[in-house]
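Example is below:
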Amino acid sequence: MRNGLLGVLLVLGVGSNASAQVLDLETCLKMADTANLSIVNSRLDVTMNKSQISSYLTARYPKIVANADYRYNAIIQGQLLPGEIFGGAPGTYQAVKFGVPFVFSNSIQLQQILFNPQINYGISTLKIQQEVLEIQQKITERDSKTQVANTFFNLQAINKQIGFVDSNLVNIDRLIGNMEAMERQKLIVKTEVDKLRINRLNSVNGKQTLLANKDQLEMLLKILIGLPEDQKITLASDDLVEKSILVDGNTINYPEMELIGAQIRMNEEEKKGNNMAYLPSLSFVAGYNYTYNMKPEDKVRQGIPSAFLGIRLDWTLFDGLEKYYKQKVTKISHMKLENQEELLNQQLHMQTENAKRQIEIQVNSLGIAQEQLKLSQSVYKQTELQYNEGTVDSNDLVKASTDLQQSQTNLVVAYVQLRQAELEYLKNIGNIK
């Protein structure tokens, strides 16, 4: 009995509110869609990248920069000039100071990009990055919902197993009561009753283990669907684990293939960007400056305006072969991505076919487990009847009880393994809703 309960636990894996919230699988998946933090963060990544695209697009707009420079020249800057300018002898020099102590300068400049190939490349890259993030969001949603469904079915399986244990305890308590009466009448020895008491203690211990595992799974489910820790929950139907979830198993969508396809397009854009880096960038520039000069002791106050318009060309004529080697790296990366795409396609198809076969295997295992349970129930009832008639001893009764409990465990395991196989298949084809 104890080994059987531990076996189902290995397969299954892993409160102050007045009323418990009733949950079905559909409700759990909907709650996870809005409250699961992994899903929420994946959507925030998509939103953040959209803002980055908008920010990058501002490079197309004109840039206007204003500057103000208010300066006091404690020592006027000087410069040596040929002395002959001032009537001196050739070959001599004289220091001359330029400027005034107080200089107030204000300027405003405008720059408008007319042509910059790197901007167009950057925008294309960000748009593909947006696709990548959206695909990753779908993968995150799929994986999170798979975890929710798996946890939900494990909880249902534990509830079903606890129900079996409770039913067995009722039968054992009834038998112990009958045998204690027979013991008092000196019809059987105490050892016969103790064998059933040991069996009962094993069942009680197994139930406690199941309840502890149930608490862990409930806590995990609350985290996955965004419920508070103290919220009591109960599952809407304990027999849902017996119903197939293969509503639509024909629609195949491999988000991993979409992801690597987007990465290949990103690589192609990177190649274009490397080629565009050979081209120059062209900008329109304009500026206005007003400088006010003051020398109070000489009563000098003079403003000098200036302005300009122009075109600026920036062109890297030689970069030390940097772009050439970048192109080589990009080409090798492209070859690697194509190989990964082919390998991934083969792996996904293999996993899908394996998942299909696993479903067939688990369906057969479930049929065997159901038949075993029917036989075990029949054997137990017959053995109990024979024991009451005195034709078999307590060892046969305990063995029949243990076999029944093992069959019950096997049935729960078979249901869970079948649901897990279906989940794995739906996950592989990207069809968990």
